Structures are given as structure tokens and as C-alpha cells.
Fold this protein.
Amino acid sequence: ESFKRIHEVDEKVQAFLTLNEEQARTKAKELDEKLATEKEFGLLFGMPIGIKDNIVTKGLRTTCASKILYNFDPIYDATVVERLHQADAVTIGKLNMDEFAMGSSTENSGFQLTRNPWDLERVPGGSSGGSAAAVAAGEVPFALGSDTGGSIRQPAAFCGVVGLKPTYGRVSRYGLVAFASSLDQIGPITRNVEDNAYLLQVISGVDPMDSTSANVDVPDYVSALTGDIQGLKIAVPKEYLGEGVSEEVRQSVLDALKVLEGLGATWEEVSLPHSKYALATYYLLASSEASANLARFDGVRYGYRTDNAKNLIDMYKQTRSEGFGNEVKRRIMLGTFALSSGHYDAYYKKAQKVRTLIKQDFENVFEKYDVIIGPTTPTPAFKIGEKTSDPLTMYANDILTIPVNLAGVPGISIPCGFVNGLPVGLQIIGKHFDESTIYRVAHAFE
Ligand code: GLN
């Protein structure tokens, strides 16, 4: 069914980079046999899933939407992919993204332009734009994305689907091609909250292959969906409804808060005073980490290698200048500069200190409140090409999602209405490892 729908609509949406048709059919046959002979089935038995192309899949092309990995076939599965197989899910294919997850519109893909299924002239958001668009277009009911500064929540908001960035450490990063290791998390993108909880259930938990994965018990997320939010205390940061946020988006969020009040919750305005520094802090730290992580793409170990080099140094240079796109080069240069001796204290070290202050802002609010609520993005989906000429306006789109990654806390985006026919996302942020409360609120609202 998934393949039928993909063949019908993907010509227009362009969400998939690689399809796994043959292997998926073999897997489906195996599952049919299992159905006939066995009694125990995985939590996602037979469920079709699409996977963002920066998560490695054994023998299935994994490009990070970069020319530098155009021919890379990994020799192992990421831990999340292994867990999906154990849960009897079926991998349908690999989904488009901004190159190495750097971007907010999927326009930085080295291969193709993914379109927003609600309006084909608009972007699906990014960097997990392929994942959100594929779910919104009904191509797959489940997808995995990754979120470093908003890349699951922002495209989920633009495409009117549900996307969760788990607590840092909740989900193993083993086999996720690293962008900024201290911020990256894999998470689920689905049509509704219940599906989202099932998918998180399957991929969560400590992993010996990722030393930053946390040894914290994984609760039963689905049983948290009680519909009961009586007495829940909501904080609404004034920085999230202020300047830059469109009037219609603000109104949708206030309407959503009314619905939650009707269900027995209360809300108050709070302040996250260091929010204004989040964007600058993020782009320094993320680019610094990226410049180190991307050093491995040297033309020797993986993927593309230039044909016309005279010596080894020349080969590195040519390969990287031909293989990486402009945004990736911009980040590598920015990060290398910020980490260079003489500038390190002024930029990287300073940014680390501000990161701590941002984290403390969240801790202070969570002493008194159960969740923080605001919009996911300042506006609904923008037009293709609208922000490509100015990186700073593109970066500004992440202003409401980035603080969550810096603090390491979990956050979800769920649809909360429409503005001119385009979906608006409501962001619900929780305490460390308290995805259950986020799901409970999101499900009650839905
Ligand atoms: N848009 C942000 C960036 O370009 C976030 C990307 C992400 O979360 N992967 O860095």
C-alpha cells in the first residue's frame, strides 16, 4: 500500500531519495509467515516506516543528501533501525533532508527539492523535510527524523504532523551521522500522538554503542495517554509570543491554551530571559561541532573522491570543495574559525557558558510548572526560494526550537490549527526524560 501511494504522489512531493522496495517485499513475506506460525509479534508489526537519510541502514544507500556520500552503502544498521526490525516494522526507504541536516527548508539537499503537500509552492521545513512531507502526504504512517536545533519539530509544524525531539540521551545516536553531537537526537514523526508514542517506545533506551545514551528506565508511553490533564500547570514564555511571531500564529496558540484550560489545566506567563542569546549560541556551538565531525569526509574513507588531484593534500581539498554544498562549507568555515586558537575563548567557550544559562532558565521554570507551551515556529511554511538568499533569515526560523536542544529537554510539535490553509504547530516542552507528560498533554489536546 505504501509503495502504491508513493508511486502516486512522490513524483510531486519528492520526499524519498531511495526506495527499499525489493527488501521490503521480502520482509513482508517473512512477516506473513510469522503471522501464520508464531504467537508473539513486535509492537510495530508490519508497519511501513521511512527513515531520514542521515541514519545508516545496512546495504541501503545512505547519503545525508550530500554528493560527498552519493554512493555510500553502510555495512551496519543504526541501533534505532535494528530496534525497528526487532519490532517487525518494514523499512520502506530513505527520506530527503537538508545536506547533513543543516537547514530549515530541505532546500539544501544536494539531490532534489521536497515540496510541502499542503501547498506545493512552499517548503516542507527542514532539515527532516522529507520525513514530515512523506507522513503528511500519506506515503508512510511512520518516519524517523533527527533534531539538532528543530529539524523534527519545525517540519512537523509546517506539514501538520506530530514530531517529537526526545530528551538528549533518550534515544541512541549510534548510526546517526553526526552533525553536532551534543545536540543531535533521533525522534519519531507520525500522523497522531498515539503512533508517536508507539514509535518512541520502540527506539528508546540505553545502548552500549552510544556512551551518551542514558541509563534511565523507559516508561510505557502509550499508557500515559489517559486524556486527563486536570490540575496541570502550564508555563507560557513571553519571549515565545513576542516580536517576530505572526499575529495568526499567536492567536492559534492562545486558542489552544483555552482548550487546555477547558480540560482542567491552568497557565501563566513566565520568562526564559536568556532566549535572545540562543540563536547565536547555537550557531557557534553547532558549527564548531560540525567542523570537527565532518573532517572524516576526506575522499579516502567514504563516498566521493575527485578524479583530478595531483597529490594527497590536493585530493582532500578537491574532494571536499566538489562534494560539499554551500551551506555545509559555510558551517565548516564558521566552526573552524570559532575553534581556532586565539578565538576559542571569545566564541566557543563563551557560547558554552551561555548554554548553561539557557539550561538554567528551563530548570527554574520547571521547578513550578509541568510543561512549557508556545508556538513551534514564528510563521507557517514559507515559499520555496523565499529565504535562500539570506542565511540569517533562514536561521531565524529556528528561534523557538533551538533553546530546547541547548537545554537537552524534550519537545513535541502537534498541529493546532490553520492559517490561510497552512498548518500551525503547537510546541509542548517537558522536563528531562518526561516525554510521558508531553504525550499526555498532546493527546488530551488532540
Ligand atoms: N535549522 C537548524 C540548522 O540549520 C537545525 C537543523 C537541525 O535540527 N538538524 O542547524
In short: The mean pLDDT is 96. The two ends are 26 Å apart (CA to CA). DSSP finds 14 helices and eleven strands in the chain.
